[in-house]
Inverse folding.
């Protein structure tokens, strides 16, 4: 994550977000399903369950992003436009997860009817709450964590999965797509950070939301092993 922000407050915000990301990245090493994935011990059932759980979070993603866009007033019309574009780009990403699930031998009805795990419920509830507040600039912190995960981890995880399994057709299209495209989304985030990191209060709000989302996303992954 190259430092591209120019203003002093933007630099301060970015440095805080970088530290939060590194702490989050390190904490994922203790998540059982991530351990098994990265150590080459993932079972086919593990991967199917991971896809199933991720789908329930991803399908809600464009909802909170769209909600946040509608909560910005005209003083933040430039941010609203970027957020709307982001929601438009990703609102059908859950279809890639369904495609991958079927490619592993799963039944599409199973992934479509699955419920969100407790971590996903908590994550979605928090994000929808924050997205409903006036001018929710703090959600840039949420996007930093989620987009950073796609940019830094997706291709690594895809490689691990493809080293462990052989499928008739791609079963990692979701991870491959995000690994290749989230760099563009991160570039947009640099601009947004520079735009809204105009006070210590704004920085505090952005970084706090990033910390909360990091904890809830980790919980979501931990709950993969508690799938009911």
């Amino acid at each position: 994550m190259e430092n591209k922000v120019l203003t002093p407050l933007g630099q301060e915000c970015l440095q805080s977000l970088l530290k939060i990301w590194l702490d989050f990245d390190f904490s994922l090493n203790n998540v059982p399903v991530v351990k098994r994935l990265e150590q080459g011990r993932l079972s086919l059932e593990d991967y199917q369950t991971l896809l199933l759980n991720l789908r329930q979070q991803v399908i809600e993603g464009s909802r909170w992003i769209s909600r946040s866009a509608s909560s910005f007033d005209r003083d933040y019309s430039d941010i609203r436009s970027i957020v709307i574009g982001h929601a438009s780009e990703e609102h059908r990403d859950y279809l890639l997860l369904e495609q991958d699930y079927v490619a592993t031998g799963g039944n599409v009805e199973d992934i479509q009817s699955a419920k969100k795990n407790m971590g996903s419920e908590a994550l979605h509830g928090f994000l929808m709450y924050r997205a409903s507040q006036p001018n929710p600039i703090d959600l840039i912190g949420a996007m930093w964590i989620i987009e950073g995960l796609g940019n830094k981890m997706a291709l690594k995880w895809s490689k691990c999965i493809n080293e462990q399994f052989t499928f008739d057709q791609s079963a990692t299209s979701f991870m491959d797509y995000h690994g290749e495209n989230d760099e563009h989304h991160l570039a947009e985030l640099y601009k947004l950070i520079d735009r809204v990191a105009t006070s210590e209060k704004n920085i505090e709000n952005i970084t706090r939301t990033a910390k909360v989302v990091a904890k809830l996303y980790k919980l979501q992954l931990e709950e993969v092993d508690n799938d009911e």
Notes: The chain has ten helices and no strands.
